[in-house]
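During the reporting period, our protein records have gained a structure token line. One record among many is quoted in full directly below:
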Amino acid sequence: MQPAGPDILIRGAGPAGCALALALRGSRHSVVLVDRRSASAMRDGPRPAFRPIALSHASRLILERLDAWRGLPVSPIETVQVSQRGRFGRTQLTARDAGVPALGYVVDYGALLEGLRRRLTTPIAEHEPQAAGCVVHAEGAAADAGRPYGQHAVVANVRFSKRAGTTAHERFTPEGPLALLPFDGRYAIVWSMSPARAEALAACAPNVFLRALAEAAGGALGWPEALAERSVHPLSLRVRRTRVAPREAFIGNAAQMLHPVAGQGLNLALRDAWTLAEVLREARDPGDAAVLGRYARARRADATATVGITDLLAQVFVARGPLVGAARSLALAGLEVLPPARRFFARRMIYGPSAFP
């Protein structure tokens, strides 16, 4: 028997929770979206710290269906160049390889969240009802124990002497992976390294940070000239053993938290939300075990593969030693001369398992 209360209760008004609420508009179910923070705090409080998000083309399609794409301030990525500092071997992924107008789009997390919330037709509640037919967890970190990577990510917004175009750069550095994402003419920096080094770079003088960045990035992008924002984020892999429990489902960071090396976390979250909405939309009882089981099965292949690929890339980027460096060089060189492999990898990062023939 379905409990009294709303049919679906969504805990967490971040991008995943808001996307699910929008995807369930017009369904047969009553939906309540709640957040532990007060509505006034979310509306009038400080905007979230700068956090670049790389949205895939598939995420764009989802946001278009939610009427949340138009007007979103995004910077397109048409090319991704992958290289490693001080060694041969590089490869380039292009939108043409993947058959899409852009491989991805960089947006500030705060702007994305604001755009999604602006399209909600019901207010975000501060207090949740005592019961619901189905509780969807979209409130944050996966509960199961995580595996730390032993790294922190330094996130920054940097202006270089050369204006950023539509090319993103992924660099293997001795400290860890360095992503430089084009963002409104500047570069959004996501730089992984040891916790001690990350804390030091987050606290040092801007000119010291910019010199370190210039050494890691190389000269192709020009000289880093101005630093706007910096923050530090611990990195770990956290994955729930199951996406469902009795009358409960888990999406986004409540289901999995990934290393940022491939920029897949938010994209996976949006696919979680879209798939769950499709399953729940016509279900007579959204909390029925069979219904939630369909959601878990539908997400298994995509989530397992995306988590595995991201974890492998994180391990490869972090690993050190001459043999590891040589292996990376050969892998990048091999990928460069195998267009079908580049196309498959690009489409896999964009679409999930539908990249398979």
User: Anything to note?
Assistant: The radius of gyration is 21 Å. The domain at 8-74+106-144+238-322 is CATH 3.50.50.60 (FAD/NAD(P)-binding domain). Residues 332-338 have pLDDT under 50 and may be disordered.
